[in-house]
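Subject: two folds for Thursday's group meeting

Dear M.,

Sorry for the delay on this. The cluster queue was jammed most of the week, so I only got both jobs back this morning. I'm pasting them in the order they finished. Each block is the input sequence followed by the predicted structure tokens. Could you check whether the formatting survives your parser before we put anything on slides? The first protein is the one we discussed after the seminar.
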Amino acid sequence: MVSNDQRRRQLAREKYERQQQRRTEARRKSRRRNAVIASALAVVLAGGAVVYATGALGGDDDKDTTVADSAPSATPSKKAPDPCGKPAPGAVEKLSYKKEPALTIDKSASYTMSLRTTCGDITLGLDAAKAPRTVNSFHFLAGKGYFDHTKCHRLTTGGIYVLQCGDPTAQGSGTPGYKLPDENLKDPKLKGGVYPAGTVAMANAGPGTGGSQFFLVYQDSKLPPNYTPFGTIKGGMDVLKKIAGAGEASGQGDGAPNATVVIDKATVTK
């Protein structure tokens, strides 16, 4: 017969074992959740042929993603009022091309990309000398109205600080129908695995999968040198800071911006 004292010890032991089991399961769930968050942020930019800043630029079902060597910890964003205005009248045109446009830009010239957005104007200086095929593609697509009325669909706010745009689907899967080669990956500006604030770069889904999706770096971001840097933010950093300040929708540091960021008109001029 089990004594009352033995019974109490048995019940205490069983209670302790249940507590330990719950703690082990909680730690397992926490590790799994952190791994999911890290994976989501590690795959940051991709698009069309695949980007989603970063993400990747690929086929219709692909997503462009920017992959970091080590995933940053997520910084949840608080919901804030939308700081942007209403989009201009008009709709995204469904444009697709079978092959990359012929190289027609002047590689020795300076080109500027102007983004008139619902949140304010952003001006980008494009480096035709170092990334001629990328700049040529943007010159071509902007001339066709490809970027007009498109949403900037991704904002990251933890470890990687970028706004990703250039996807007509606003889902991370938009593509112009062709893929671009990587360019300028050995740019000396990319020191120590960092894309410095002010960088304009391509999102992709792997080597040679650039399309139309690109990301704007509003704060130094740890990324491997796998994403074609093809320009610099010349004006509108205050606009990007305003967008970032409004946070992103998932609350995990990587999702759609709370701000309604729409490119009403994009132009590339010499």
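Second protein, same layout:
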Amino acid sequence: MNTREVTNQYRLNKWTEIVRECRSSGQTISAWCADHDINPKTYYYWLRRVRAAACEALPSLYSQNNPIANPIVPVNIPVSTVGTDFGDQEVLSDIVIRFGAVTLEIRNNASATLIENTLRALQHVR
């Protein structure tokens, strides 16, 4: 790792700390920035960089070559389907997942990518 990469990683770690501190403070971003003498434009720049780094890290976390990092569980789809009434139109769902207040209904023609991304997103629902 060269000095530029080390410097970028150091800055990214500091910015991540700052974003976490701001988010956990309970204050608005503008109030928190004013209390800490940080320009809100600078804060949003740091936030954008932290988010970009997090998005870049996702493919390496969920590599298809690493079965442990890809926790997709096979689901047996029953022959009968569950119907959901939307006004005068009934939509048939092949899979219904209830997680607390969240209900997810997936139709059999949903793409594997959509299902995979949805299940990954559900891992972060609390």
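Two things I noticed about the second structure. Strands lie at 82-86, 89-93, 95-99, 102-106. The radius of gyration is 21 Å.

Cheers,
T.
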